[in-house]
Amino acid sequence: MSQKSPLARLISLSYVLALGFLFVVLAGAIYGNWYPILVALIFSVAHLPMVVTNNYSRDDFMNESSIYVNDFGKFLSGFLLFTGFAIPLVLCHSLILTTVACILTELGGSLIYASVFAFTTYFDSGEESFEI
């Protein structure tokens, strides 16, 4: 098996991200309701709390505050992800969004979150070399 270069992975991730935003914009533009853009913003920042709190750690093994901070980041990230999936369903149930717009929003949001998650997972190696 051949390994993909980092540039090829970056291009494929940007393609998936653009496809996700296309689905969300189409869900808003076709039916004239722009609430799905709010969902795209939620999905694009849903992984941010985990990224911020994963790097927070203390050297003191008796101090549990770093565990609480990591758990809070996971909770906040899960809350944003759940909110991103729930808002289109609630709007569809209240007849503000159509069923097709809800499906496009859910699919686009899933693609946005998956590409952001894959980008941060792949490019966050954790080992930074400051060699010249």
From TrEMBL:
Swiss-Prot/TrEMBL keywords: Membrane, Transmembrane, Transmembrane helix
Keyword Transmembrane (UniProt): yes
Membrane topology: Multi-pass membrane protein
Designated name of the protein: Vacuolar protein sorting-associated protein 55
Primary localization class, coarse: membrane
Subcellular location: Membrane
GO biological process terms on file: late endosome to vacuole transport via multivesicular body sorting pathway
InterPro entries recorded: Vps55/LEPROT (IPR007262)
Family: Belongs to the OB-RGRP/VPS55 family.
Transmembrane segments: 12-31, 37-54, 75-97, 103-123
Gene Ontology annotations for the cellular component aspect, listed alphabetically: Vps55/Vps68 complex
